[in-house]
Design brief:
By secondary structure, the chain is an alpha+beta fold. The protein is built from four helices and nine strands, in the order ααββαββββββαβ. Strands 6-5-8-3-2-1-9 form a seven-stranded mixed beta sheet. The chain has a two-stranded antiparallel ribbon with strand order 4-7.
Length: about 160
């Protein structure tokens, strides 16, 4: 094989390679086949409302997986862990490659506590300060940037099946 042939083959191979597909609404392609999507609003401490597209972690399997192996998430996206009853909740960052803000919320959606900038790839438990029904994972820095705090509220309506 000549050098020109090798270069041609290499260029053809390179041209046929594609970056991982993003979803039509700029979601996380690795989650779209497995997780249901929804939308929620966070009413921040200053009264402003911020809309997010979310993945729902409603089953034990989805809650165990969470955002594991996700390397990038759009700014207006997150994952909402929905639990059947209020309990103290602990989250970890095993195999999670992005730093996250963890927003713990009571059954009425009011924010109980927030853990800012949880570092990726750790097994340290990050726990709620009281029993909660929801945990919302957002890109690190989002809670501070949008003034999400102790007077904030998550507004989310489950879809009727």
């Amino acid at each position: 094989m000549t050098i020109a042939s090798i270069v041609t083959v290499a260029l053809l191979c390179f041209a046929s390679c594609k970056a991982p597909a993003q979803t039509a609404s700029t979601g996380v392609a690795s989650l779209d086949g497995d997780f249901e999507r929804s939308a929620l609003i966070i009413e921040s401490d200053d009264g402003l409302q911020h809309e997010f597209e979310i993945y729902l972690a409603t089953t034990y399997e989805h809650q165990r997986q969470g955002l594991m192996f996700v390397r990038k998430m759009p700014q207006n996206m997150g994952m909402l862990f929905v639990y059947g009853q209020s309990k103290s909740r602990a989250m970890w960052m095993k195999n999670t490659y992005i730093s996250l803000d963890l927003v713990f919320a009571r059954s009425d959606g009011t924010v109980s506590s927030i853990i800012h900038d949880a570092p990726p790839l750790t097994l340290d438990a990050r726990s709620s300060v009281e029993p909660v029904t929801f945990v919302l994972e957002l890109n690190a820095g989002t809670a501070r940037r949008l003034n999400i705090g102790g007077r904030s509220r998550i507004i989310w309506e489950p879809t009727k099946q």
